[in-house]
Amino acid sequence: GQNIDQPTEMTATEGAIVQINCTYQTSGFNGLFWYQQHAGEAPTFLSYNVLDGLEEKGRFSSFLSRSKGYSYLLLKELQMKDSASYLCAVRDSNYQLIWGAGTKLIIKP
Amino acid sequence: IAGITQAPTSQILAAGRRMTLRCTQDMRHNAMYWYRQDLGLGLRLIHYSNTAGTTGKGEVPDGYSVSRANTDDFPLTLASAVPSQTSVYFCASSRLAGDTGELFFGEGSRLTVL
User: Fold this and answer.
1) Which of A81, A104, B49, B63 is the most exposed place for a label (fewest CB within 10 A)?
2) How many Cβ atoms sit within 10 Å of the Cβ of residue B76?
3) Which of B105, B107, B109, B110 to mutate to test the interface with A (most CBs of A within 10 A)?
């Protein structure tokens, strides 16, 4: 079966750095996405990786290793507004998105 | 209207009743999707449409139906609601099916079936 694993919850301190991991086992691979979802709101797009390596976008970076079935989202200089759930999703060989359950990130002052 | 609009925002429904969740987008996106989101689970695809006039079944289609008469609208119908359909429903769109770009989501419709 297809599976996306992420930690359920993480806690970090304002101003610090946090890494949210995602491992996947899917039927084929056509890209990996990270989305941010604040409580009670819609998911919003953060990043897309299809090749191995690091993609940097401001305070957020996303890394992909296809051979290991692994990705991480790195958030730097954490702000209180970064408190949200972070969803990892993989596009399989049928171009269907398989979603992880999300990681709830709690930022403490 | 900017983006995707869903209605209603929230609804409490008696089991056995029929319910249609509305979704309208103004971005002229070809592909549209309906997901449900339940606590502890990832988003699960119910139905999708790659272009106006076509629809397809996702991971959890049973008990739901959709139509795509035009580019902008993609309603989701529960013919006879059951308590297991209590969930938050998100409509989403992308420029093209299988696009490498992002999905745009509506604000969600919270449905409670009693």
Assistant:
1) A81
2) 22
3) B105
On chain B, the residues whose CB falls within 8 A of the CB of A8 are: 40
Distance CA B60, CA A62 (A): 30
Three-class HEC string of A4-71: EECCCEEEEECCCCEEEEEEEECCCCCCEEEEEECCCCCCEEEEEECCCEEEEECCEEEEEECCCCEE
pLDDT exceeding 70 applies to what percent of chain A? Answer: 100
Cβ separation A43–B105 shorter than 8 A: yes
Q: Please judge whether A44 and B105 are an interchain contact, meaning their C-beta atoms are less than 8 angstroms apart.
A: yes
Q: What's the rounded Cα separation, in Å, for the pair B93 and A90?
A: 17
* 8 Å CB contact between A100 and A6: yes
> Would the CB atoms of A43 and B90 count as touching at under 8 Å?
yes
Tokens 């969930």 found at: B87
Summarised one tens digit per residue, pLDDT across range B39-52 is 989 899 999 999 99
Q: Is the pLDDT of residue B100 over 60?
A: no
With vertex at residue A83, the alpha carbon angle to CA A81 and CA A85, rounded to the nearest 5 degrees, is 130
Reply yes or no: is the peptide bond before residue B8 cis, omega within 30 of 0. Answer: yes
In which element (H, E) is residue B106 found?
Answer: none
DSSP B100: S
Q: Does A43 touch chain B (CB under 8 A)?
A: yes
Contact A43 B40 (CB under 8 A): no
